Amino acid sequence: MTQDVIFQTLGTLSGQSIGVVTLNIEKALNALNLDMLQAMQAQLTQWQQDDSIACVVMDGAGDKAFCAGGDVRAIYHAAVANPNNLTAEAGDFFTQEYQLDYLLHQFGKPVLVWGDGIVMGGGLGLMAGGSHRVVTERSRIAMPEVTIGLYPDVGASYFLNRMPGKTGLFLGLTAYNMGAADALYVGLGNHYLNSDEKEPFFDAMAELAWSQDSEQNHHLLSDLLTGMTQPHLASLPTSALQQFQSQIDLLMAGDILDVHHQLSTLNTELDWLKRAQKTALAGSPISWHLIFAQAALGTDLSLAECFKWELGVSVNCCSMGDFCEGIRALLIDKDRSPQWLFTDVEAVEANKIAQLVASPWAADKHPLASFN
């Protein structure tokens, strides 16, 4: 039986090793399940403490995706069987996922993520945790949670709110698919290579003078990637997000009803913006409110506080939000006609959002209480 995630170590000329994590469910676009999350948590924790491991690389099997998100079917079935209750399946999955993402952010040693192909939802959580985030000409990066009654999680409360202008809000509401240039512009990618440069890049990594000095190793990897990225920069297409930043800021200006009105009445010839508009307007009205609540967090919260906030909201979405209906329509019945709890953004009751953003745990009993 093939393993859902494969761990290898590569020797280098320096005598130090590189730990390689390969997400290995190609037919499911390397979507994350609980077993994978637990296995990665254990292996990465071990590598973090192993002086012979200089660097970690994360990659996805096949050429279609690094990781298309989380495999949420088990959460869906548990939630449907236990309506209005927090389930162990939801609690365990999101807790484990956020612990893994947080570990990557705090890893210390360089973590390179090969963000080729589809990188969405939970895949973006892994990528955002990497210190060196490579995008390619095939990268398609998005947070599509508005379409399933969730909101951008996996640390997005931290990174979306630190993007230029109102870009983070726009990405959350519209599930806009970023290419490489967009990802570099908003900081989700920090290096660019062509997809066919993977092997030469790995070969070059094996020849670096790795040591047990993490800071020095970060510089070595950055210098290698910068040198390989440089020849491509002139030929990269212009980022639409960058080019239309001022229009995006105007479109996203004001309160939730202003933005809904602006998107509803938008008349544009830009295909990418039409798709974004259509996705946003078809999305869950509850998701809209959660995405605005997330944007209102601003940049005051630490990464740890963002993950704690998200865990409460995510498990609440599964028990009393639009999540089950969103998953039913997209993955279970596949009719793509979700019947959201509220007919439109204006109809959403304030007390419903207050319930969803209220943590189900006391601070000292929070599953992520150890985050600081």
TrEMBL record:
EC numbers on record: 3.1.2.4
Keyword Cell membrane carried by entry: no
GO CC term (a single one): cytosol
Record domain Enoyl-CoA hydratase/isomerase: where: 18-356
Classification via Pfam families: ECH_2
Top-level taxon: Bacteria
Keywords: Hydrolase, Isomerase
GO BP terms, alphabetized: L-valine catabolic process
SUPFAM superfamilies per the UniProt record, alphabetical: ClpP/crotonase
Catalytically driven reaction(s): 3-hydroxy-2-methylpropanoyl-CoA + H2O = 3-hydroxy-2-methylpropanoate + CoA + H(+)
Gene Ontology molecular functions: 3-hydroxyisobutyryl-CoA hydrolase activity; isomerase activity
Protein name: 3-hydroxyisobutyryl-CoA hydrolase
The organism of origin for this protein: Shewanella psychromarinicola
